[in-house]
Every structure is written in C-alpha cells, then in structure tokens.
Amino acid sequence: MSENNNGVWQPYEGGFLKKCPECFMQFHGRKNQIYCCPKCKARRNNDLAAERKIERDGHTATLLRNISILKKVFSESAKDIVEVSKSRLVYEGFEKEGLYTLFTMAGEQWFKVGDYAYRPIDGTDLIEIQKLV
Ligand SMILES: [Zn+2]
C-alpha cells in the first residue's frame, strides 16, 4: 500500500484497498475515501478539534499571563512610560512569542498586549511599557 493512503485498486472487491488512519483496519473504499466509516471520520475530526482547542487555550493563557505581567511591572511606578529590563520581564514569566498586535506610534513600532504597549529600546536591554487606555 502506498504511503499517501491512495490505496491499491482491488478489481474483485470493486474498491481500493486502504488502511483507516484512525482504527488501522484495512477496508475497501472509494479512491478518495480516507476513513473506514463515518464513526472513525467523526472521531478523528473530534480529536483534531480538541487539539485545536488546547492550542487556543494555551495561546489565551500566555496572553493573559503577559498582560498581568505588564500590568504588574507598569503599576510599580507612577510614571506614564515605564522602563524595565528584558531579563526582568523574562524572570516574571513574560513570553515574547505570546499573542500581540503591532502598531506604530510616534514613528516607533510597538507591541500591543491587552491594554498595554511595549517596545524594546534599540541598543539597550530595556523595554518601554505604557498603558493605552
Ligand atoms: Zn476506521
């Protein structure tokens, strides 16, 4: 059987010999049929949806954690723009791979995370943070 599960034509069976990627049973099916039965197809689709939900929840958790870290660091100072070292943010658990929106303000590119915006200051180890609302 080929790797792509296209199957081998079985003239006596009137279908292609295939292997279901869900239950690993061999079956005879149409050329474009992937699963042996609707139950296996539904099971696989449910598994994929569950995996996507876990991934989405992970992104949301990281985003919420990053927002709360920016909020914490920002509120430690009475300034409108707070400077903090990158290592401090990392120490707090900030993940720069978390979700953000890029935007330009006063000619500088900022990362928007929740109600906060931050940007690395070129040539330094510092991050500027400000609250947007
Ligand atoms: Zn199956």
List its traits:
3-stranded antiparallel sheet; 8 strands; 133 residues; alpha+beta; 34% helix; 2 helices; binds zinc ion
Can you describe what's shown?
The structure is a single chain. With 133 residues, this protein is an alpha+beta fold. The protein has a domain at 60-131. 34% of the residues lie in helices and 29% in strands. The chain is built from 2 helices and 8 strands, in the order βββαβαββββ. The protein has a 5-stranded antiparallel β-sheet. Strands 1-2-3 form a 3-stranded antiparallel β-sheet, with no helix packed on it. β7 and β8 form a beta hairpin. The chain is rod-shaped and about 80 Å long. The model has no long low-confidence stretch (mean pLDDT 92). Bound molecules: zinc ion. Residues 20, 22-23, 25, 35-37, 40 line the site of zinc ion.
Roughly what fraction of the amino acids lie in strands? 25-35%
Instruction: Determine the fraction of residues in helical runs and give it as a percent range.
Output: 25-40%
Strand order of the largest sheet: 4-8-7-6-5
Elements, N to C (H/E) = EEEHEHEEEE
- The counted number of beta strands is 8
Please tell me what the overall shape is. rod-shaped
Work out the helix count.
2
